[in-house]
Amino acid sequence: MNNQATKRDVILEAQHLRKEFGGLVAVADVSAKIYARTLHSIIGPNGAGKTTLFNLLSGTLPPTRGQVIFKGKDITHLPPHKMAHLGLGRSFQITNIFPNLTVLENIRLSAQAVGGDNFKLFHHYTRYHAYSEKAQRVIARVGLQGSELALARNLAHGQKRKLELGIMLASDPQVLLLDEPTAGMSSEQVPELLAILRQIMEEDDKTIVLVEHRMDMVMSISDFITVMHQGKVLAEGTPGEITANETVQKAYLGALYGDLGSAA
Amino acid sequence: MSETTDNVKGTSTKQRTSNNPLLIWLKKNWGTLLLLAGLILFPYIFSLISGTPVSEGPPKFWQGQFIVIFIMAVYAMSYDLLLGYTGVLSFGHAAFFGGGAYAMALFITHVAPNIISSYRITLGSVNVTEAILVLVGFVLAVGVSVVLGLLFSAVSARVKGAYFAMITLAMAEAIHILSKATDFVEWTGADEGLHGVPIPAWINPTQFRLRFYFVALAFAVIMYLVTRRIVNSPTGRIFVALRENESRVQMIGYNPAVYRSIAFIVAAVIAGLAGGLYALWTMSATPTMTGSGLTMDALIMSILGGIGALTGPMLGAVLMEFLGHFFYQWFGARWPLVFGVIFIALVIFLPYGIVGTWQLRSRQVQQGWRRLLRPLRIEKQSE
Questions:
Q1: CB proximity A184 to B under 8 Å
Q2: What is the pLDDT of residues B30-49, one digit of tens each?
Q3: Least confident segment among A259-263, B27-31, B34-38
């Protein structure tokens, strides 16, 4: 972990990002550096602007101000379909798959997208073995063996999240942006997915940016953590530093009580 | 021990499969081949049964019915490429068909005679000028279709769903109005349409019905094979992905607008070719061929047969032409009323169309078998 952290090459950077929805400022001014080959978590209580920040980083929403720099290139206004080709994979909070295609085909299509055989109209797609083989490897990676030929819509929720991860992996991204990948998963499935994520990062040399609501979950697997509160960066640092940080504790506790108050 | 026997078994079956690829292919496609053989022999068998010569009376009439079926099957299939595969609801498909028909008819009527009178192309000692001109007519039909397809897909990048369907309807109507505009009456015959298109004598459907029958059959078979290959190509798989989840398609790195345009152009070209052949068959091009009624025909055929499978709309076209023929005999001009009731019943009871429901059922049956056999297979592996 330390070894990776000392390398210090920034792969993704947010520069003074700001997003307003009408009068509401969802993200006020966020600058963050994501280092290559690290697992960086962005956490914060409800309404902190995490998902908005995620959408800004992933190019889903245009920022009101600021830039997103990926590998030294400004990608702020790049159309979404070009991002995958640059090596930026995204997975959203809402499960986003091809429901009536098989697991294999879901992943194969993603592998094909970056492979450059997309304009072959008169060859059978099975002739391009490389994509199916890659899909098989990805399936093994995310732990979906045995469900290759199942229709995506028939998968259990946890498996759908894994498939989503697989679709992202198949396009060989250098950076994986994930918005609450464990949302809706049962508590026994969460550690498995987190272990897979950590494994992908370490063994496949990926950078992972994780947006999470639950602080306890990311502590054990993250290299760096950015804590957001009310559209701003509240604290930044290693899990140890964050745990020790008093303002973070306060913000989280405050928000927690706030949540309880509004729920009651 | 059991492992070795298993291995031996494995290799022996492998050898059997690799030994005779032709046999495997025949086994897999016997149904299609049988159907094809049936269609090739149909005129002769029919003439034997009815006791009339092949090119007279009922055999000739039914060849005509089948020619229309073949052309309409291709047309409906091209519509399914959009509706069933790419998930685009377009109400302007007749524009492509009519565009192809008019391209062919206009060229043969107004341009081809001048060329025939001043040029002569021979292949050996055979005069192939007319044949080449017919081919040029098809090329023009393709050109017109590509332009129309691009026009339609340019709109699809901005407007979605029902709104898009409405705009395609408007665009097709514009072309329909253009086809019957009195401004071009010398060229298109306006409301009347172009009639008595001077198509080459050797393909004249009145004189050489049987010949035209085989041309139309070959056309349908080739178009089916080409379309099947396209939907199973890497690009075709993206069409299906677009139908399933457009935002996801974009997210994994495809530009949806590009692939939707390709789907549109392919569908337009196939429909345009069908239109071109239809113009040869009727020796005319009329505003009905660009009208919304024809688009509805494509929609009804697709839904009847089942969208998302190429054979579905083809079967739908067969059914609609047959039912149309017999219902007209039985119910007279009111036949669409009866057909409508049957259509509603089919949509209620077979929501995936005939082929779609059949495929679904057969898959369920297959899955049932697999479920039944699964315990056995696991035992085999663990042994």
A1: no
A2: 888 999 999 999 999 999 98
A3: A259-263
Collect all residues of chain A within an 8 Å Cβ-Cβ radius of residue B259: 118
pLDDT in tens, B208-267: 999 999 999 999 999 999 999 999 999 999 999 999 999 889 888 899 999 999 999 999
Question: Virtual CA dihedral for A211, A63, B247, A157, nearest 10 degrees?
Answer: 20
pLDDT for residue A253: 62
Three-state secondary-structure class, residue A223: coil
Residues in chain B: 383
Q: Is residue B271 domain-shared with residue B378, that is, in the same domain?
A: no
Is the same domain home to B87 and B194?
yes
Picking from B118, B73, B83, B96, the residue whose alpha carbon sits closest to that of residue B275 is: B96
B106 and B196 share a domain?
yes
Is pLDDT above 60 for A257? no
In this complex, which of B233, B241, B247 lies closest to A121 when CB atoms are compared? Answer: B233
Mean pLDDT of chain B: 87
Question: How high is the pLDDT of residue B1?
Answer: 35
Chain B residues in contact with chain A using a Cβ-Cβ cutoff of 8 Å: 226, 229-230, 232-238, 240-241, 244-245, 247-256, 259, 262, 266
Which residues constitute the domain of residue B39? 1-51
Residues of A in contact with B240 (CB under 8 A): 98, 101
ipTM computed for the complex:
0.83
Partners of B251 on chain A (C-beta within 8 Å) are: 80-81, 84, 90, 96
Q: What is the mean pLDDT of chain A?
A: 85
Question: B234 and A128 in contact by Cβ < 8 A?
Answer: yes
| Domain match, B356 and B344 both | no
Same domain, B71 and B42: no
Q: Are residues B229 and B328 in the same domain?
A: yes
Q: What is the mean pLDDT of residues B69-94?
A: 94
pLDDT in tens, B209-221: 999 999 999 999 9
Give the residue-averaged pLDDT of B120-131: 82
Vertex B327 angle, CA B326 and B329, to 5°:
65
CB atoms closer than 10 angstroms to residue A108: 30
Any B CB within 8 A of A81 CB: yes
Q: Is the distance from CB of A131 to CB of A112 less than 8 angstroms?
A: yes
How confident is the model over A146-157, as a mean pLDDT?
91
- Interface contact flag, B251 A90, Cβ < 8 Å: yes
B124 Rama sector, left if φ>0, alpha if ψ -120 to 50, beta otherwise: left
* Chain A interface, best mutation among B251, B359, B367, by max A CB count within 10 A: B251
The confidence score (pLDDT) of residue A263 equals 39
Q: Looking at the structure, do residues B262 and B233 belong to the same domain, yes or no?
A: yes
Count CB-CB contacts under 10 A for residue B199.
Answer: 23
Q: What domain count does chain B have?
A: 3
Chain B nearest CA to A247, separation (Å): 37
CB A80, CB B253: distance < 8 Å: no
Q: Which domains does chain A have, with CATH numbers?
A: 2-87+173-263 (3.40.50.300), 98-171 (no CATH)
Assess whether B321 and B309 both reside in one domain.
yes
Cα–Cα distances (Å) from B122 to A87, A129, B129, B135, in that order, read 57, 47, 7, 15
